Amino acid sequence: MISLEQIHSFTLVYQHGSYSAAARFANKERSTIREHVVTLEDTIGVELFNIEGRKAKPTNAAHKLISRATNLSKQAKDFELTAFSLLDDPLGELVLLHDEQIPAGLLARTIKAIKERYPGISIQCAPSSREQAYRGLESNACHIAIMATENSPRTQARIASKYIGNLPLCGYVHARTPLAATESVSLDDLRLETQYELPNTREGDLGFFRVSNVVEKVSSVELAAELLADGGWIALSDALAKPWITSGHLKPLPLANATRNYRQGVCLFFGLASNTREEIVFALDILNHHAGDYLI
């Protein structure tokens, strides 16, 4: 008989590429993970991995089974989390992590609505890297993360998600620099300019649009605005840049047509058992409801 443990071990080896990596992730012995996979192979009568050095290369059979195995692992985890949450007390604290480019207005309206509905709840809202947010969701240290869309085995298996719209982004420069006066700027024009990035920006994040040869991290948009007075540029969401445009500090780059209307998808990420917590369900609904005022 095929067990859920065998299916879960198979899924982990497929996702992580080796028995050792899967064991480290699951905090189990390598021999245990391998035994599960070998037993599964014996039961179904086909090989799932070819071992090449330290790597476990999936066979055609593994490729055909992985989507179903991933769904079964996710459903089993969902059942476990839901079962153990049935006797939970009302949520006293809600932790919301977000990409630095997410509009403050969306966050503020959501927090106000949650506090109005649940006056006793404490809300911790902070910018975060994607990896930190995922770790928080998996360990129940975070309840909701608002990040750029991603469709990876990790999110498919252990984290639920909901798409809520696209965030418009653009390149911005200081209003008094030569680039601001240029009629049309190409990506080649930007390669020799210093590009600034907010601290948590990584590949796949909302503000990740690397073009320049020199990329430097800055702690805030305020610091970027000061530094941009001496040249350079930064990619920001339209909502994040709006106050700085109004104050006269920043100006959108007149980018060529191919890159002028750049936008990125935004998703809500949350734990598999979130549908059992009234407060989290309400927060997700409010974020989705107000997203239309800030995303397209």
Fraction of helical residues: 40-55%
The termini sit apart by 49 Å
Tell the overall outline.
Answer: globular
| Total number of helices | 13
CATH fold call of the largest domain: D-Maltodextrin-Binding Protein, domain 2
User: Could you tell me the radius of gyration in angstroms?
Assistant: 23 Å
CATH domain class name of the largest domain: Alpha Beta
| Backbone structural class | alpha/beta
Main beta sheet strand tally, sense and closure: 9 strands, mixed
Mean pLDDT: 89
Number of domain units: 3
CATH H-level superfamily of the largest domain: Periplasmic binding protein-like II
Spell out the blueprint of helices and strands:
Blueprint lengths: L3 H13 L2 H8 L3 H15 L4 E4 L2 E4 L1 H26 L7 E6 L5 H14 L4 E6 L2 H9 L5 E5 L4 H6 L1 E15 L3 H4 L5 H5 L3 E3 L17 E3 L3 H8 L4 E5 H9 L3 E3 L4 H4 L2 E8 L7 H14 L5
Parallel strand pairs: 3-4, 3-5, 7-8, 7-9
Antiparallel strand pairs: 1-2, 5-11, 6-9, 6-10, 6-11
Helix pairs in contact: 1-2, 1-3, 1-4, 2-3, 5-13
